[in-house]
Structure formats: structure tokens, C-alpha cells
Amino acid sequence: MSEPFEIRDRRILGVATGFGWAGVLIALVSAGAGLTWLFEGQVPVQASTDVPGHGTFEGAVLISDPSWVLILLHLATVLCTAGGMLVIMFAVLWLVRCARRGDAFLPRMRSALIAVAAGIVVWTVGGEMLPGAASILAYGVLPEGFHSYSRITIWPVMLIVVLGVIAAVFDVGARLRHETEGLV
Fold first, then answer.
1. Nearest in space to 125 (alpha carbons), one of 163, 80, 83
2. In the β-sheet with 55-64, what is the strand arrangement from edge to edge?
3. How far apart are CA 97 and CA 61, in angstroms?
4. 117 — alpha (psi -120 to 50), left (phi > 0) or beta?
5. How many Cα atoms are found within 13 Å in the side-chain-facing hemisphere of 178?
6. What is the pLDDT along the chain (184 residues), one digit of tens a residue?
7. Hey, which residues does 45 pair with through a beta bridge?
8. What predicted TM-score, i.e. pTM, was given to this entire model?
């Protein structure tokens, strides 16, 4: 026998709230961990090397005595990654709060979804593009046998398109709610 709809909703929203606060904590801890390298005078940079018989190894190489450009890129990477994740998590918490109030189809929901999309963009720039730029700039100081590399993924673009469709659905719901208020 299935449980009442309201109980399922409360459970789902409870899980989403826990996810939101866990994400906030993870973002803050990862930002702190990312900044510790700067205090030690080192900057991690993406690099790859060929391991005979095993293929290519991709990871991070610590650059000692980095240039100010590498330091700034690493700082921007840490701040964009943590900042983007914080924006996403606080927007999720905002969505949960509105849903718990029964305000699922208010124009604010669209704003929260736009905030999530903006957070994904900032997070992607910090997590994917800036480390690649740092790797390319550090090419001359990488240890012998290591090569710079960068990667670009398409999943953030797909996720933003999905969020755009969901935002459009919320817009239609908000308009219908506004049109039907006072009819009963």
C-alpha cells in the first residue's frame, strides 16, 4: 500500500534539505582544502604522463614557487568551484522552502532555477576551464615527462537546458495559478 502523498513529499523535501546543507558543508571544506596549498607555497596543476604498459595517467602535479598568474588562477578555481556549489545548494534550499510552503508555482521558483543554472556555470568554469588554463600556463614548469591537459565536459550545458525547460514549466504553472486565483 502506498503512503499518503504528503508524507512522501515531506520525505523528499527532507532529503533535499539534507542534500543542500551537506553540499554547503562540502563546498566550504573543499574551499579550505584548496586554499591550504597556497599557504605552503605550492599550486596543484592538472597534468598527464604516459605510463608504459598502462596508458596515460591524469592527475595533479604540485608546482613549487608558482608564478603569481598560477596563484591567481588557483585562487579563482577554488573560489569559483566553491562559490558555484554554494549558489546551487542555497538555491536548492530556497526551492525546498518554497515547496514546503506550498508556493511551488510562484515566479520566485523561476529565479531559484536561474540561480542553480548560474551556479552550474560558475562551478563549471572553476572546476573545468580554469584548471585547464593553469595547466597550459604551467607547461614550462611541469616535471619532465608530464604534459598539460584540460578537459571540457558537455553535461553542464545539458543540465542547464533541462533547468530551462523546468523553469518554463514553473512559469506556466505560476501564470495558471495567477489566472485561477479567485475562481473558486
1. 80
2. 55-64, 42-51, 146-147
3. 42
4. alpha
5. 9
6. 455 547 667 788 888 888 889 988 988 998 888 888 788 888 888 888 888 888 888 888 888 888 899 889 889 999 998 998 899 888 888 888 877 777 766 767 778 888 888 888 888 888 888 888 888 888 888 888 888 877 777 888 888 888 888 878 877 877 777 777 766 6
7. 61
8. 0.75
Cα 19 to Cα 93: distance, rounded to the nearest angstrom: 9
20 to 44, 70, 91, 172: CA distances (angstroms): 28, 32, 9, 26
Task: Locate 35 and state its grid cell.
Answer: 586554499
Which cell goes with 44?
596543484
Cβ atoms of 122 and 83 within 8 Å: the answer is yes
| Structure letter (DSSP) for residue 4 | P
